[in-house]
Structure formats: structure tokens, C-alpha cells
Amino acid sequence: MMRKFNRILILFLLFVLILSSTSFATVGIENEVSAYLLGDFETGEILEEYNIYKPVEIASITKLMSYLIIMEDVQRGKISLDDVVYIDKDTAEIKGSSLELQEGESFTVGELLKAVLVVSANDATYALSKYAEGTEEAFVRRMNDKAKSLGLKSTVYFNSTGLPQGDVQNMMSPEDIFNLSRYIIDKYPEILSVTTIPYIEVPSRNYKEENTDPLLNEINGVDGLKTGFTNKAGYCLVSTIGVNGKTTKDKDFRLIGIVMGTKSEGKRKELGKTVVQYGLDNYSKRIVTDKNTSIDTIHMAKSKDKEIEVYPEKNYSTMFKNGDTLDVNITIDEEIKLPLKEFDKVGKATILKNNEVIDEMDLLVHKDVKKEGLFRVIGRNIKEFLSFLFSKITGWQGENSNWQILKFNVEYINVNTKCASVAQKDRAAPS
């Protein structure tokens, strides 16, 4: 049987910002995009959303999957970043954003990968697809297979670049884009050192192109991830930013923001910035439990130490929006049996956000808890009994002199009686 303590550890934001009139606002760009999403990289929690489950044209956001396939080949040793790729005629004829590759030129896999991410080079992407699988068609089959293995249910690729292919284009839901981005950053975090490169240049032919990401110089900390544009897709942007915890009760976190289908390059920049800034202004990652920090102290009358600290079994943190409430309900097992060993369970902690349960965990002791010794029990009982008698004779009412002291534990009385009998027997024995 469990009893719920009436005390609740309320983790309201006592130290949070003074709530402004915008604290409870929404992003408010629904009429200017086909979809948007703001999510937590670590947990995959979607914080803000609009129309995120419907597949939409993705243009060059396609290249995130192309990057992933190449990096998997590098990881398993099939190819190397230092491998040299020779440019053929078909590759040199690829249009759209490009590295302006020319037939007969050569670049390393690593150099081409940088061009894929930084300037969204279609020709570099095509060259890598042929180098990895022989044909782009074979490469695209791998892209679709990988999408299925990752559980990207609304994703379909027709090419490696995102260029229109007749009347069809590569499609993904914003939810799928979010999950793919999380997977890539987790598995290959080095991508963020590439997506922050300010420009790509080829000095031999005076080529120099700036990074296509419009937020790199707009919001401090933005370090990726990918742009996209076709007439059908509109202007699209996947952004990510690492955020430092604002207080000692916060932890660092990473946001991923997505805007799809904006009407112009300028609007892509403006609305992409709006989504990221909304996350920075309204969210933090709150540390709820620390497995090495006591969450409560409980009284155990029959234990040697009496006051015992209890600890949560795990670390737990959650994204916290301005105006949210966090509560931790502590429930202690009423039938705890002593002694206890280190890490024994003694209860549960239930975590609620906005009055909804978001997690539960066991509560543990972090040291052995021994039962109170016999002579200490006898001494305490005698002391309490004498205090009671004194209070009845004198009328004095001390803090320990209430009627509860008459509730002697039966096992203690039995122990005391047994000790008295033994003493009498010893006195009767011949010397």
C-alpha cells in the first residue's frame, strides 16, 4: 500500500523571467508558410507545429539524405573522404545551384560533400551518387530504403538532388524532415562544422559562393542545416541552434526549426528567424530530477538515523515553455521493511507538466538504513514514559508529551519483557 504525501514539490518558475504579454503567444506564421515545426533535438518532442504530417515538395532538403548515405559509406570504409572523384560530361551538365563542375576536373569526396551542404551544389551531389553506387538510380534506391528503415513514412525520393523530375518532385512531411535531421546530427555531429562554413571557393577558376543558409549571420549560435527551393516547393529552410541553459536549474539543449513553402527568399529568412527566435524566447530545458541530488527527506521512526534522504532513480529534464507548471508528487511506501540496503526502492516520484503525467520513477536510498538498536529502543521508551508521567504529575506539556507516546510498539514491549525475565533468571542462578 502506498500513501501519498500531501506535500508536492512544485517547480514553478520562481526564477523565470517576468512573464511578458508574449509569453503565451503562438508562432503566428500559419498564413505565410505551407508548414512549420519547432522541436527538441534530444527527445524529439515537437514544441510548435503547423501542418507537419502532410508530404510537401522538399527541393534541396533532399541533400540531407544524400549526405547521410555518403557518410554511411565512409563510416563502413566503402569510400573515403580523400577519394578522388573525376567529373564526367553528364555531371558537368547538371543545372541549378552548382559548383560549376567541368568535365575532366577532379575533387575529393570531402570537397564535394562540403559543396553539397554549403552551396547546395546539384552537380556535386550527382557526382557523389554516381561514385558511390555507379548510377544515380541505384543511389536513389538506397535513399528510399534508408527512409523506410528510419520510419519516415511520408518520404519518397526520385533523385539525389531535389531538382524537379518532370511533374514529380521529392516529397517529405515536415515531421519526417525533423526526424531525419535529428538522426543525422546525432550520428554525424560533424555535419555542423560543415554547415557553418561561410563560403566555397575554387581558386583555379575564380569560383566563390556564399553559404546559402540565411540565418548563420542573423542569430548567434545557428549552425545549420539546409536550404531548399523549387517553384513548387517554395523557399524552405531547416535550421538548428544549440542553446545554453539560462539558470543552474536548466540544461543546454538544441532546437530544430523548419519552415516550408515560403513565398520568397526574403520571407524564408524572416520566417525561419521567427521560428528559431520564438524557441529562444519561450523555451528552456528544465532539470526536474538529478539522481545524485536528494529529492526529499522521510522520517523513519524505527531506523537508526530517523531522517533518511531519498533520491530519484534517474536524471530527468523536460522542455519548459513560459507559463508551464511542473509538479513532482512524492509517494512513499507505507510498508517499508527495515533494514534497507543501498539503492533499495522506497517509493515513487510522479512528474506532471500542466497537470498531466509525463514520467514516473522509483525513489531510492543511497545508503544502508539500519534498524534502531535494542538498547536505544529501550532507552527511548523509558525516556518517553517518564516524560509522560512527569507531564501528568506536574501538568507540564512538552512537545513529546502527547498521548501518542502511550502507543508503545508491541514488539518493543515484548522485547523489554523478555529482557526482564532473563535478568531475573540470572539473579536466581547460584554463584
Give a brief description.
With 431 residues, the protein is an alpha+beta fold. The protein is built from ten helices and 20 strands.
Put simply, the count of helices is 10
Q: Helices and strands: which structural class?
A: alpha+beta
* Strand count: 20
Q: Which CATH first-tier class of the largest domain would you pick? A: Alpha Beta
Shape: elongated
* Quaternary organisation: single chain
Q: In this structure, how is the largest beta sheet organized?
A: 6 strands, antiparallel
The fourth-level CATH homologous superfamily of the largest domain is DD-peptidase/beta-lactamase superfamily
* Overall domain count: 3
Residue windows where pLDDT falls under 50 for at least 5 positions = 1-25, 399-431
Radius of gyration: 33 Å
Separation, N- and C-terminal Cα atoms: 53 Å
- The sequence of SSEs as H and E is EEEEHEHEHHHEHHEEEEEEHEEEEEEEHH
Order of neighbouring strands in the sheet with most strands: 1-18-19-20-16-15
Helix content: 25-40%
| CATH 2nd-level architecture of the largest domain | 3-Layer(aba) Sandwich
User: Mean pLDDT, rounded to whole units?
Assistant: 86
Beta-strand portion reads: 25-35%
CATH topology (fold) name of the largest domain: Beta-lactamase
